Amino acid sequence: MAASKLPIYSALAANLAIAATKFVAASVTGSSAMISEGIHSLVDTLNEILLLVGIKRSQKPADARRPFGYGKELYFWAFIVSILIFGVGGGVSFYEGITHLQHPQPIEDPLWNYIVLGIAFALDGTSFITALKEFNRQRGTTPFWEAVRRSKDPSTFVVLFEDASDLLGLIVAFLGVFLGHQLNNPVFDGVASILIGLILTAVSLVLARESRSLLMGESMSQDTLQQIVGLVENDPAVSKVLESPSMYQAPEEVILILVIDFNDRLTIDDINKTIPKIRQTIRGQFPLVKRIIIEPGVAGQPTV
């Protein structure tokens, strides 16, 4: 099931507006946590743009230079996004927090911070709900974490995790500003900035792990492969499917290799006529299998 781009556009618009208002509030109040949150939203805005670039480039048709297509562009850019969340978002938040602890500045009037945080929470909350609905539509009845692990479309779960980290970061920033002002202790503001950095680092590690796995190449699920093997072995011309390695090139694009032991009574011409029929049968029931490479083999003999 193809993913919708709506969560990405929703997050892009929300983060762009929120980043501007956070920086304005930070310049007025001098809050370290607000600076970290502004950088956080700015990085998220860039992330959404990179995901859209990845989606666009992944749809380029195959050519002589990339005979298997450009589908993995999406996985590459999703991996870059996870690095940016860690390196820029998390790193700068740590830096801002430590700097604020070394040179604390009290928050004199937190009103602007509260206003911006409230607006940001409403916008990020709307974006999060949009992303969650799309993710739930994609996963169906699959448990949440299993769906994240099995998902082949990083554009869906990356935006969801970004929005979740946004909301957590806003809560931490609010607590830092509130406690720092009420107790007249700017240390809370610096600690909040460091905690925001920890949140971003944790999210980036999860996203980097999933994006790396997709970039390296993930197989179709064993259940789906067994269905395909059963479908092929029902053909009277086939004795047995010896191997069936597969790899996702994109969320809706799979390369499948089948090493087949054909019936001994078949001639070369018979096999050549059977192979296109097998491809057509597979594609009819599993349209995401775009490329099917079929190689004759003999049971008991090495295929390589």
UniProtKB/TrEMBL annotation:
InterPro entries: Cation_efflux, Cation_efflux_TM, Cation_efflux_TMD_sf, SLC30A9. The chain crosses the membrane at residues 74-95, 111-132, 157-179, 191-208. Keywords: Membrane, Signal, Transmembrane, Transmembrane helix, Transport. Residues 1-19 form the signal peptide. It is a multi-pass membrane protein. It is found in: Membrane. One of its GO terms (molecular function) is monoatomic cation transmembrane transporter activity. GO terms for cellular component: membrane. Residues 10-216 form the Cation efflux protein transmembrane domain. GO terms for biological process: zinc ion transport. The keyword Transport applies. NCBIfam families: CDF. This is Cation transporter. It comes from Spirosoma rhododendri. The lineage of its organism: Bacteria, Pseudomonadati, Bacteroidota, Cytophagia, Cytophagales.
